[in-house]
Protein: CbbQ/NirQ/NorQ/GpvN family protein
Amino acid sequence: MPLSSVAANASEQEIPYYQSVGNECAMFEQAFQQRLPLLLKGPTGCGKTRFVSHMAAKLGKPLFTVSCHDDLTAADLTGRYLLQGGETRWVDGPLTRAVREGGICYLDEVVEARKDVTVVMHPLTDDRRLLPLERTGELLEAPDDFMLVVSYNPGYQHILKSLKPSTRQRFVAMSFDFPPPQVERDIVARESGLAPERCAALVNLAASLRDMKGQDLEEGVSTRLLVYCATLIQAGMPILDAARATLVEPLSDDADVQEGLMEAIHATFG
Structure:
């Protein structure tokens, strides 16, 4: 599986749908124009990745997306020597490609990556905007149309996985949360094709389930899962079956917690 996914320049018709709830689009544009790195904070599934995809397409810039994980190293981002056709050749990683070619490099859940990734980021997040490639001896200067965007979920981190203040203070930062009920209803309706009035019931249910976060659940139900649920309902699946598959099973493996979730679902849909 490739480490990164790259989206080419998109026409207006191809811009991924995103419903703004504040000044986040204007803030992103200003950060891009002023060559400032951007940090997005917010719960899982609240729209951070979709927002970045939307803005990259809106600005007409390539998007290099990296889903960070425990085994992600600096070499995965910058590149490495690989054997190709009997020859050893240097192959750029997604971060290096973004710096060489211009574009937006998005590191999703950056705190999941190993610590050496932070070391690579630092020269790109100040006025130097440099990417040193020790293995090739290059020192790349980021072009004006390069932007570094990172995200993480502050509510799902522990002391061993958090961004140091010295790193956070290198970024312009924005906090994300789940959209207001009416906006979330419209998002779910548009993404799934389910009637808005039926999506409203799902959004009300989500509010009840999110109140359980920190008590029985580590994470509240995401907007993404609501879209999945609405999509299954629109396809003809019974509501309770769709809700169990999208709003219960993904949230917990504990039988008692699942029973409590189903009680809330029954209270909403009967």
